[in-house]
Amino acid sequence: MNLKESYIEKAGKILLRLGIRSVTVDDIARELGISKKTIYVYFKNKKDLVLNILKHKLDKDREKLRQGVVESENAIDELLIMSKYVEEEFYSIDPSILHDIQKYHPEAWNMLEKHKWTFVLDGIKNNILRGINEGIYHDELDPLIVSRLYVGKCDLIMGGKIFQYPEYKLDRVFKEAIFFHIRGMVNSKGLNYLQKRLKNN
Prior knowledge:
This protein is mainly alpha-helical. The chain contains ten helices and no strands. It has helices at about 5-20, 25-30, 35-40, 45-70, 75-90, 95-105, 105-135, 145-160, 170-185, 190-200. α4 (about 45-70) runs antiparallel to α5, α4 (about 45-70) runs parallel beside α7 and α5 packs antiparallel against α9. About 20% of the residues are buried.
């Protein structure tokens, strides 16, 4: 990892912990133990830093989810692996961060929206096709509709209006949502596998 990547990784953790709007470049420099001038060597401004942090995060997510496809035994296993990763990522996130990105960092928000409606959408659609081909999902499912329902549900969860933080934490809500999603797609063979898989974990 080079210096720029290291700063992106560490600054990302600071922003997730303290929030985006309330943290200044001075705060980040102080937390990293470097000068403000050093940050400006690598990033034009705070918006550029946030954009780089989000890009780094999405690249990492894509790699983890691709890895989950390769390592999974079947479509159900793939979703459970993905679910565990997302829950861990959501564990300490305050949904206000997403609101701040949408309101104050439109370029970063557009990147996030594109990620959801291309990579995530395609991943869920391919998972549905995989599950149907493996004989563990209902074969009458419409992958195009169900995958869009899934991404729309993620938008609803992260919007913070229905599930308000801190009463409802993102990791807990997402865990319920993914189980609901899987349970609605599996046939009797898939349900049998799901029950055994959950029992063993």
